[in-house]
Design goal:
This protein has 45 residues and is mostly helical. It contains two helices and no strands. The chain starts with a helix and ends with a helix.
Length: 45
């Protein structure tokens, strides 16, 4: 039951994430943003 719930939640999250992009260019910007956010977290304050 828990496994099925997790699969559904992951699927819904992926669906919203992909629908937010709507284009390959949008997906590229999202990937760039995530990379920059990750780099700033690793650099620290």
């Amino acid at each position: 039951m828990v496994k099925k719930t997790l699969v559904v939640l992951i699927f819904l999250a992926a669906l919203f994430w992909l629908s937010g992009c709507q284009t390959v260019q949008g997906l590229g910007r999202d990937v760039t943003w995530v990379g920059e956010a990750g780099a700033s977290v690793l650099e620290g304050p």
